[in-house]
UniProtKB/TrEMBL annotation, chains A, B:
It comes from the Bacteria. Pfam families: TetR_C_13, TetR_N. Keywords: DNA-binding, Transcription, Transcription regulation. InterPro entries: Homeodomain-like_sf (IPR009057), HTH_TetR (IPR001647), Tet_transcr_reg_TetR-rel_C_sf (IPR036271), TetR_C (IPR011075). It comes from Prauserella isguenensis. Gene3D superfamilies: Tetracycline Repressor, domain 2. Residues 28-47 bind DNA. This is TetR/AcrR family transcriptional repressor of nem operon. One of its GO terms (molecular function) is DNA binding. Residues 5-65 form the HTH tetR-type domain.
Length: 200, 200
DNA sequence: TCGGCAGTTGACCGATCGGTCAAGAGAGCC
DNA sequence: GGCTCTCTTGACCGATCGGTCAACTGCCGA
């Protein structure tokens, strides 16, 4: 035809869904096509390979995440940091509501499974993580300038630490069958312990 | 026989190797059999399924880890905590030396990939994580009794936090192509920020 | 009006997947 | 010696995997 316009998007969104409720290995191209109501030939018109689809899904999530994180600027660093924790918790709570349990971080899941398998996907994930971490780092530097960072705390290392903690905490919730509501709480703890006493 | 005796062990060790350099989905039963020099029928004599093999690999790593963590008891809590950080870093450095890069945590990798796919494997991983966390918690409680914990820090939550941080930090090193040598350093940071000033 | 081209379709491919099975082979026990 | 039980073998299975292809369809610009 070809008519359409939204075929590619339907594929990406359907596979984003499937990848969250399963894994890269457990989701076949046929599964994706069925979920998106698209024939396989059409799929391969838009994506040269299954791995390329994964990258598109990564981009989808990365855009959504950065948009959400950029929302709360123009506030104090402490509030922004806690806002990030709430945002992460909110996203995970949304996933939990949709899928019935904590299904992990879209980046972290693919990173754990594919980093050692496909270098191009790993690069894609690495840059998504880097952008995420830079967003954290900007807030941490703001905190340093505001003087609310505990002495000896390096803002860049704190940003890295926050990201690591986020990933690890989500993973533990996923494997342990824990609720998403506690994820934000532990992130708040981590933030507070790095701030001076009395900094909200 | 049936001669042998070490066939099962060879299978488990070979697949532990393959699972670290790849993923559960990227390693086939045929791969495992070839690496262990075992025919497929023999494999299925010892393991009813591929998933059951994964559980055996989990047990292998869990035993090795707990043995390593139990080594440094009878010291101050602060030293023991830092000892745990060094142990984790040492394990990862060993993997890095063997595989040429950081390949992730054996538990974390499988947890991310299989938690949403196979509930029995997820249970297995959850109990491995729980034992690990309990080991951490024991040291954190010791730290509390020694009075070296910063005020407001809950030992159980700290143990959970340490585990989460460990997992996240290893994942970031894996996807970012970072060196394993820095993993221990960030864990030391996290421990120090939770201890009172002056506590070694 | 017509040609080209993005999009679509469904049939098809070889490879590989996890798993099965009947038959054999050797150690240990009687 | 012979029985049994564990282990081993290699051939085999249907299903599914990621990916290809030639043909078709309809919009759009010339």
């Amino acid at each position: 035809m070809g008519r359409s316009g939204d075929t590619r998007e339907r594929i990406v969104r359907a596979s984003a869904r499937l990848l969250l409720s399963g894994s890269y290995g457990s989701v076949s191209v046929d599964d994706v096509c069925a979920a998106a109501d698209v024939r396989k030939g059409s799929f391969y018109h838009f994506f040269p390979s299954k791995a390329e689809l994964a990258k598109a899904v990564i981009d989808l999530h990365a855009d959504a995440l950065l948009e959400r994180l950029a929302a709360a600027s123009g506030d104090t660093a402490a509030k922004r940091l806690h806002g990030v924790a709430d945002a992460v918790g909110g996203i995970q709570a949304g996933f939990e509501a949709t899928y019935g349990r904590v299904v992990g971080c879209p980046f972290g899941n693919l990173a754990a499974e594919l980093s050692t398998v496909d270098d191009t996907v790993r690069d894609h994930l690495a840059s998504a993580f880097a952008r995420w971490e830079h967003g954290f780092a900007a807030i941490c530097h703001q905190a340093e300038h505001e003087g609310v960072l505990r002495e000896g705390v390096d803002p860049d290392r704190l940003a890295h630490s926050l990201l690591a903690h986020t990933q690890g905490r989500i993973l533990l919730a996923k494997v342990g069958g824990l609720s998403a509501t506690d994820i934000a709480a532990t992130l708040h703890d981590l933030i507070d312990v790095h701030l001076r006493e009395g900094a909200a």
